[in-house]
Amino acid sequence: MNQRIILFQVCAFLFLFSPNVSAVGKKMPEGRGLPRFAVMSDTHFENGSQTPRIMAAIEYAENNGRGPAIDRDTRKTDSAIMIPNVRGDGVFDDTKGLQDLLDTGGATIFLPKPAKNYLISRTLKIHSGQTLIVDRNAVIRLADRAGAHLLTNAEPARGDSNITVIGGIWDGNNLTQTTLFHSDRAKYKDQPYDRDVYLGVLMVFDNVKNLHVRDVIFKDPEMFAFLGGNLYQFTIENIIFDFNMRRGNMDGIHIAGNSHFGRIVNLKGATNDDLVALNADDIPLLELARGPITDIQVDGIFAEDAHRPVRLNSCGSPVKRVKISNIFGTYPYEAVILANHKVHPDNPIVSTFEDISLEGIFCTNSTKCMNMPHIRVFSPGQVTNLTIRDYHRTEEAVATDNILVEKGASVNCLTISDATLNNKSEGTISFVNNQGLIGVLNLSNVFLQGTSTRKVQLLKNEGTIQTINKSNVSEKNY
């Protein structure tokens, strides 16, 4: 313990008195280039802790003077943004100053809340090994008609690793932007993906290992909030969508192919398209990467009138080992779909899903319902195992089927357990509507309740079910 105290004291001394560390408002000596700042604030530490100052000193000492300098007055936040070429007044273009800050190579960079907002006109690029922490009330806004993404990784061709983005309000200013997709969808949708083409996305990450994005507010993208592909070991969590709904195809988190071992957690707010899309295949313009998506957890979606919570899409590339849990709210479209969408119509169409688990589904239809089933397997989907448990629906808006397997689709094993359905809407709801092929249908602890005019039906079968196993199943229309 005494050794740690001595180390802290030595590092603090080096930080406070080293001539290579710039003080507030003081420039580095000539020839050292731009001053290097990672402006920190004690508002993120309880009881006025001096931890950020000491930790900055340790980092500075360990980097032997090569790391970013730290604003020693940790109390200054809104009024003192000591970053060269950055004003945060919502008028001055802060792009160069912010990019210069990222290019210093500092391991941890903090952006405080500016007087108004940071304004950028070109995409910011974050490097491997960097953590960007943005004050929760700081707005990073795309300039009018800039036609640029807000943030991406610096080396997509070579690959990046260990990137973390925390906080901030990332504003796409969509009413002044136009993408190729929205300007002429029929003309441009088959144009191959080009990372230099503006797609109306707030954050784009391509070819990153160990990516972590959290505590972010995504505001008004022209299309998606987040697009990522070729990702390995990634976490996206504690996200709020603040969308004006003034554009079509405003997805939330859009994951492209060759993405593995990911966790997407705690999403709140309505979107104008899928809140989460796991697209192993996509239309060429948006297909950042094409290939398998495996080992993904989606947990916690909370929204009202928000299009659709989750889409899995396969048109040649498989989607495997995905668990989706804890969906709440109201939606005009389905809750979860296993889709194809014929995004590559010229290729042999194979739509493959393996070991998909849905758990804790509590959502219902919105009053704007488009008469879609809750869980839908599109043709020509081929599903090995689909497990649905803890699925509870009290429907008061529009009567639509719970689970639909389309004609031409197949599910080897469909297991449904611990589920309830209470129909309080006009019409009949089929719990399972099979028009395709189900190898084994397992039903256990299922309770359905309706009335003579608001009926429930356990099974509507116009296809083939080879084996049915039922245990503790109740179907009552009073």
Description:
With 478 residues, this protein is mainly beta. The protein is built from five helices and 27 strands. It has a 27-stranded parallel β-sheet that branches. Helix 1 (2-17) packs across helix 2. It is elongated and about 70 Å long. Residues 4-80 have low confidence and may be disordered.
Q: Which helices and strands appear, and what pairs or packs with what?
A:
Blueprint: H1 2-17, H2 51-62, H3 95-103, E1 108-111, E2 118-120, E3 124-126, E4 131-134, E5 139-142, E6 151-153, E7 160-166, E8 169-171, H4 180-183, H5 185-188, E9 203-219, E10 226-242, E11 253-255, E12 259-268, E13 276-279, E14 293-304, E15 310-313, E16 319-331, E17 336-339, E18 351-361, E19 364-365, E20 375-377, E21 381-395, E22 403-405, E23 410-423, E24 429-434, E25 437-450, E26 456-461, E27 464-477
Parallel strand pairs: 1-4, 2-5, 3-6, 4-7, 5-8, 6-9, 7-9, 8-9, 9-10, 10-11, 10-12, 11-13, 12-14, 13-15, 14-16, 15-17, 16-18, 16-19, 17-20, 18-21, 20-22, 21-23, 22-24, 23-25, 24-26, 25-27
